[in-house]
């Protein structure tokens, strides 16, 4: 009897194992998109209407990731994501890669991802531009890069080269301020045409309050180059102390130095302690949301003309439920918002759920169906259409993102001036 039960249990486990293995292999395939396609008929006409109130040439998507595996470039994806020794991260990576049209086949050149992205952009809005972001490595306290613990690496030279050969691409450099040659690298990238700098403090190990950032801020302020930096928690990072680096309050030294700062994702994830008061007193407590911390800063007159927030990723399931309605309902906040897609993330189906947005009252049924149709043909355009369609109902009145939120070209017009 015992043996029978054990055998049954083993068969059960075996079936479960096979099921999991099947899902492990099938899910990435299921998320893969077909080639970029032009919209047709009523869907095309409905999408066209999403552009009538904006100047298409001013639509710059300021948050687009260029990634590569080092096939024809010096880019890489971190070990933790690619190694089967970290099965969960490796699985996530396979899902993301499949949805992003990012081949994990060792012989596919990095250029394949770029070509797909450019095709999506040119089908969506060829008059606009993509701000393609480089991604620097994790750098330790001694100023040495740590490739083994870096999430990604996309060298500045790669985005600069793409921008040189594609007039609809603008290069965003990424330089870690703790590097011994940080200023030299920064200056070199700006001289070569970079028009923004990107940081992800939580993953790269950057404390924006660190004294080593001061000369860096001086260059950005002088050359009027916006600093696009992640705020809030970062899912890909495990360490709790590293999450504190995404606290928007740490950006005060940059703002005080006169840098134009773009706080990515409107800090819509995580709890951020008020570090100005006391760190230890609130130890263990959840603390106020990072979003509330950033909103307070945006309302502070000292940040006028200096601090902005990008709305990339805020339609994702983990962010939309918490803050999207509040953001949509606040027209004063819209003055400080700028649009970015965080591509390839909008291409990853489970991250954004139009059904969920409909359920929480931010999307109509007709608009949900339209967005789903657009997603099938062009996930980059889907991000734009969805953000034009989401709305909060305030006293019977519909509130949407103001058209100027999408016309972000002005942010880069001062660079080098
Ligand atoms: Zn991003």
What does this entry look like structurally?
The structure is a single chain. The protein is of the alpha/beta class and 417 residues long. 41% of the residues lie in helices and 11% in strands. It is globular, with a radius of gyration of 22 Å. It contains 17 helices and twelve strands. It has a single domain, classed as Alpha-Beta Barrel (TIM Barrel). The N and C termini lie far apart (83 Å). The strands form three sheets. An eight-stranded parallel beta sheet has the order 1-3-5-6-7-8-9-10. A two-stranded antiparallel sheet has the order 2-4.
The CATH topology label is TIM Barrel
Output the CATH class name: Alpha Beta
- Small molecules bound: zinc ion
Question: What is the number of strand segments?
Answer: 12
Distance between the termini: 83 Å
Q: What is the helix content?
A: 40-55%
Level-2 CATH architecture: Alpha-Beta Barrel
Number of structural units classed as domains: 1
- Total helices: the number is 17
Strand content: 5-15%
Strand numbers in spatial order across the main sheet: 1-3-5-6-7-8-9-10
Helix-strand blueprint:
Elements: H1 2-31, H2 41-48, E1 60-65, E2 76-77, H3 79-82, H4 87-100, H5 111-124, E3 129-133, E4 152-153, H6 156-165, E5 169-173, H7 182-191, E6 196-199, H8 201-204, H9 214-223, E7 227-230, H10 240-243, H11 252-256, E8 261-264, H12 290-299, E9 307-310, H13 317-329, H14 331-334, E10 337-338, H15 354-359, H16 365-377, H17 379-389, E11 392-394, E12 397-399
Parallel strand pairs: 1-3, 3-5, 5-6, 6-7, 7-8, 8-9, 9-10
Antiparallel strand pairs: 2-4, 11-12
Helix pairs in contact: 1-4, 16-17
Bound molecules: zinc ion.
Zinc ion (ZN) binds near residues 63, 65 and 342.
């Amino acid at each position: 009897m015992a043996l029978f039960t054990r055998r049954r249990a083993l068969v059960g486990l075996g079936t479960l194992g096979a099921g999991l293995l099947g899902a492990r292999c099938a899910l990435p395939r299921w998320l893969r998109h077909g080639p970029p396609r032009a919209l047709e008929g009523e869907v095309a006409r409905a999408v066209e209407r999403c552009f009538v109130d904006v100047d298409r040439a001013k639509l710059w998507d300021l948050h687009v990731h260029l990634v590569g595996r080092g096939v024809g470039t010096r880019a890489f994806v971190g070990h933790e994501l690619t190694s089967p020794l970290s099965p969960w991260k490796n699985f996530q990576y396979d899902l993301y890669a499949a949805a992003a049209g990012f081949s994990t086949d060792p012989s596919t050149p990095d250029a394949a991802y770029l070509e797909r992205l450019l095709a999506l952009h040119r089908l969506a809005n060829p008059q606009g531009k993509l701000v393609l972001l480089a991604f620097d490595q994790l750098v330790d306290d001694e100023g040495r890069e740590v490739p083994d613990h870096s999430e990604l690496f996309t060298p500045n030279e790669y985005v600069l080269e793409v921008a040189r050969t594609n007039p609809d691409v603008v290069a965003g450099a990424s330089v870690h301020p703790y590097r011994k040659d940080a200023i030299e690298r920064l200056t070199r990238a700006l001289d070569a045409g970079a028009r923004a700098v990107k940081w992800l403090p939580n993953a790269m190990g950057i404390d924006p309050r660190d004294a080593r950032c001061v000369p860096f801020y001086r260059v950005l302020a002088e050359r009027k180059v916006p600093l696009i930096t992640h705020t809030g928690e970062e899912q890909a990072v495990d360490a709790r102390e590293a999450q504190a680096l995404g606290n928007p309050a740490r950006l005060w030294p940059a703002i005080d130095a006169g840098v134009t700062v773009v706080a990515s994702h409107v800090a819509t994830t995580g709890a951020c302690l008020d570090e100005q008061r006391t760190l230890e007193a609130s130890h263990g407590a959840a603390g106020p949301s990072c979003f509330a911390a950033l909103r307070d800063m945006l309302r502070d007159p000292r940040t006028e003309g200096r601090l902005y927030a990008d709305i990339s990723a805020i339609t994702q399931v983990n962010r939309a439920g918490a803050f999207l309605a509040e953001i949509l309902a606040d027209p004063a906040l819209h003055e400080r918002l700028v649009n970015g897609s965080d591509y390839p993330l909008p291409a990853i189906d489970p991250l954004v759920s139009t059904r969920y947005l409909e359920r929480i009252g931010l999307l109509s049924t007709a608009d949900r169906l339209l967005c789903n149709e657009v997603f099938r043909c062009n996930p980059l355009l889907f991000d734009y259409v969805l953000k034009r369609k989401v709305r909060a109902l305030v006293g019977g009145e519909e509130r949407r993102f103001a058209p100027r939120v999408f016309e972000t070209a002005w942010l880069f017009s001062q660079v080098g001036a």
